[in-house]
Design brief:
By secondary structure, this protein is α/β, with parallel strands linked by helices. The protein has 15 helices and eight strands. 51% of the residues lie in helices and 13% in strands. The strands form two sheets. A six-stranded parallel beta sheet has the order 1-8-5-4-2-3, sandwiched between helices. Helix 10 packs across helix 11.
Length: 354
Amino acid sequence: MLESFTKARAMNFPRQVLAGHGVVEEIGTMCEGFELKDTALIVTGQTTGAIAAKQVEDILSSAKYEVHRIVTGEASRTNIVKVEEVAKDVKAGFLLGVGGGSKIDLAKIASFNLKVPFLSVPTSASHDGIASPRASIKDDGNSLSLNASVPMGVVADTSLIFRAPYRLLASGCADVISNTAAILDWELAQRLRSESFSSSAANLAKYAAESIIENAAMIKPNLEESVWIAIRPIIISGVSMSVAGSSRPTSGSEHMFSHVLDKIAPGKALHGEQCGVGSIMMMYLHGGNWQRTRDALLSIGAPTNAKDLGVTSEQIIEALVHAHEIRKDRYTILGDRGLTPDAAERLASITKVI
C-alpha cells in the first residue's frame, strides 16, 4: 500500500511591484488598491531615507491616511522592539520600510511579529532583501538571518535609489552575483546530503545573477539607467527565497565567509561586497568560472580583494578557515571540516584576493 502524500508549503510573494522613475508617487494608489484603511507607520532612518520618508508621508496623508514615523538605527533586537512598541502605541494597521536595507529589515521583522502588512520602499539597493522573506540583524556582534514578512508591495523608485551612494548599488549587484556560488553549494548538498532542492528557486536566483553579470558593463555611477538594469534582478533574487522557503538559493559558503568577516573585521565593508569577494573564491573551489565572477565585479566597481574591502590578508584567511563553522545545518563546498590555513592562503592567492 502506498503511503499518503503529505508534503505542503506556503509560498508568499509581493502582490505588486512598481519599479522605475517616479513610481513613489503611486504609493497612495497602491495602498488604496490593497484596501489598507488603518494607520500607517513609516520606519526610516536619518540619512538616505529621510527625504523619501517625508515624501511618502505627504502622499499617504493626501490619501487620507493617518501617518506616523519612527526614525531608527541599525537592524538590531533593540530597534526591533522599539519599532514594535511604536506600532502598537499608534495602532498601526500596516508598516512601510522607507530607506536602506536595515530599515526595510526592521519593518519586515516587526510586520512578521505583529502580523500586519508591510510595504517595501527602498532608497538604496545594497543587497537582495528588498522583496525577500528573510531579514538580517546584528546581535552581540553576530549576524543573524531571521524569518520576516514578504512585502505586500514593493515601490522601487529609480530616481530615489539613484541618489544613494553608488557603492550601495554596486554592493547589491555583488550580492546577487554571489548567487552563482550559492546555487553550486545547494546542488552539492542535494547530491551528497539528499537536501531538498527547488529547481524553480535555483533558476530564478541564477537568472538574477546572470542578468547582472551579462549587463555589468552597463552598470556605472551617475547613471539612473544603471539602477533600472539592476533593480529587477535584485528583486527577483529576493523572490527566489520565497519559492525555496529559505535563503538557500542566494546564500552559501560565500555568505558564511562574509558572516565570519563581520565578526573579525566589523564595519569594514558592506555585506554584498564581502559576499562578492567570497563568491570569487568559492567559485574556484567548485571548479567554476571564478574569473568571470571577478571580471563582472571589477566592471561594476565592486571589491575583488582584501585591500578593496579594507581588511588584511590575515583576516581573509581567518574568515576562510572558520567559515564552515557558521550554519552547520547548511552543507557547502567547505564541507564539515573547512579549510586549513595553508589551503585558505593558497585559495586567496590564486584568486588574487590577497
